[in-house]
Structures are given as C-alpha cells and as structure tokens.
Here is the input.
Amino acid sequence: MPISVEEFRDEVTAFLEANASRKEAEKKFVWGEGSDKVAMFEERDRDVEQQMLTAACEWRALRFDNGLGWITGPAEFGGRDLTNAHQRAYDQLESRFDVPNQSFFTIGLGMVAPTILAHGSDEAKQEYLRAMYRGDIVGCQLFSEPGAGSDLASLQTRAERDGDEWVITGQKVWTSGAHYSDIGEVIARTDADLPKHKGLTGFVVDMRAPGVEIRPLRQMTGGASFNEVFFNEVRVPDRDRLGDVNNGWNVALTTLMNERAAIGAGGGGGGGNLLTRVIEMVRAFGLSQDPLVRQGLADLVIRSKVQNYNNQRAMDKIRQGQLPGPEMSMAKLAGTENMMRMGDFVSTVLGPKLVADSGEWGTYAWSQLVAGTPGARIAGGSDEVMRNIVGERVLGLPKDPGIDATSPFRDLKVGTQKD
Here is the structure.
C-alpha cells in the first residue's frame, strides 16, 4: 500500500532533522544591510564552484540512498513511484533546512533526465537515470549553435553513422554547466536531404570523451557561466541515441517544454525579494512620493502578480498530469520581459550610480542584473520565438512565412550551409 503524504512528511522530517540544520528565521529585508547582490546569473570562482558541486552531489547521494532522491520516478530506476503531492511535500520541508546548493542539477534533472526517460533506450535509462538522480553524474543541454539559436531546426552539428556508433562534429554555444558536466544531451543533423525539422536526431554524449572541447564564454557581466562546446569527431554508441533516427525534433521539444517550465516558474520577472529591494531602493533615495516613479513601481508589482498567477495555472496543470500548452511560452516570455522592465526602472532611479562603482550599497550591484537579463531572453528560446508560439497557438495567427519546412536542408542557405 502506498505511503500517505502525511506518513511521508514524517519520514522526510526525520531524515532532514538527522542530516541537516534548520534555517534561522528569515530576517526582514532592511536597505543597506547584508549582501546587495542581485545578479541574473551566479558567477562563481571555479575552485569554489567545485567545492559546492562536491557538497551538492554528496547531498543528492544521501537523499537517494534514503529513498528520497527520485520521489516520483519509477522504481526500476531507483525511484519511489510516489505522487507529485509527495514531491511537493518534500520540497516544502527541505526548504526549511540548510542544504547544499542544488542548482547544479536543474538542467540535468529538470530537462535531460526526463528526456532520457521518455526517449532513451533501455540501456541508456539503466546507465544514466539512477546515476543522475543520485548525483553521481551531472548533465547539460547542447542545443543552440552560432547560426541556430532562435531557429533551432537550422542547426548544423552533424552526426554520421559508423556501424554501431555515431560520429558527431560541430559546435554548440550558451551551454550552462558544460565545464562540470559528465554527460550532455545533443541534437545533431543526421540527414541533410530531409527538411530541417525532419533530419535531426538526439544523443547522450560523454562530455569527457576524446574530441570534446569546452571553452568559457565571457559575458558582458564580466563572468563566464556559459560555455561553447566543440565536437571533433566524437564517437557515441547507438545505444545512447534518443528516440528514432531523424525524430530529434520531438526529442528536443520534450526537453524545451521542461526548460521553459523551469525558466518561467523560476521566480524571474520580479520575484518577491527583488520587488522588496526595488521598493526599499525607491524609499532610500527619497522618491516614494514621485508620481512617475510610483506609477512605474505599481506597473512592476501588477505585472509580477499576473505572471505568478499564470505560472501557478501552468504548474497546476502539470501536477494534474496534463501536458502544458503555450502556457510555458507565455510564462517564459512574461518572466524575461518583466526583468527587462525592472532593469529599465532601476536604471531610471539610479542613473549614473548604476554604471559607476562608488562603493555605495545597493547601486552598482544592480548592473549585474541589467547586463545579465539579455542572456535570459535567449535561454530556452528567444522572446521572438515565444511570441511566435503564443501568436500561432493562442491567437490563431498564421505561421511565420519565412520558415521553409518542406525543402531539403541542404538546399537551404543557413549560416555557412551553401549546398
């Protein structure tokens, strides 16, 4: 008989009490106290990052070995076969304790693992799923390319079959966590004679394999949390193919649906803490009675509330076992647009304080958010792609006339593709 949510909460509480410390009561935010960091992307020293990763993996292993590593997963791969309600109960309880940063697993467990479960071979599922949820290996996603970001189906990384292996050659960009990942999910072109959406295939690739080169990408924030990855005749066994040959577009859609859910519901677009900081900043600079500032601040608050309600609707749909539709694209688009609005508002309030590091608390630190937001507008599908999806699937508008979905890919002039 399945364990009830109440019984499960008791089990989780006992585990957390035995292995972690409770968080101190969260203090009310006071302007000028504590850290003023508001970066869009966390920039870490690589040595510090490695220490954090080690601690995160140890915590996941401890969770997994106590039956809490994959609560909703199938038992044959180390899961508990419990419900989303059990997962929510665990998340709620763990949030009250100090545990190692788990952001290292957001992509691997939130996007790659569900794709392996849905499209992987039996061998791949056995090899990767248990190890991923235990924290033994970390995964990344390898989709975007220099000439195929917004138009992902135009990617040119190719995979050629050689017996029971595939040989992958090409380049990927904007790959978060590639430098510490063990495996990656890659989409490559396997048949240039088919239309661009039809000739793609997904694979799981060993990020330590010969021919894989990872280079950090320096952002205008000054940090390098993303990477570009080069594949020079990297060999991948056919058992690590995801789905059928030339059915990679559907594999990619599975991953992207989960990615947009994570980005849209991840607190972007003016989460409560950021809004609190903005409100207190307005007060600190004596602008709380300025009518234009008040109007701009009210606009931020209203849009944030609307975004949160939309996110809740989408997540409730997922929790009920339904597949989300365009809600995920709406959530992602709303999140990044709200971040842009917040950056514009902060820029107006701070003026030159935003670009000159005077050491004053709560001023120059905001430049990390303003400079980092364009990256979020690209991740998980650009804002323009999200607008197309909403326009076509919600408003019923015709498809973009510039998309050729019928001609063979080799006949399209895409990037350096000439023939």
Summary: Confidence is low (pLDDT under 50) at residues 264-271.
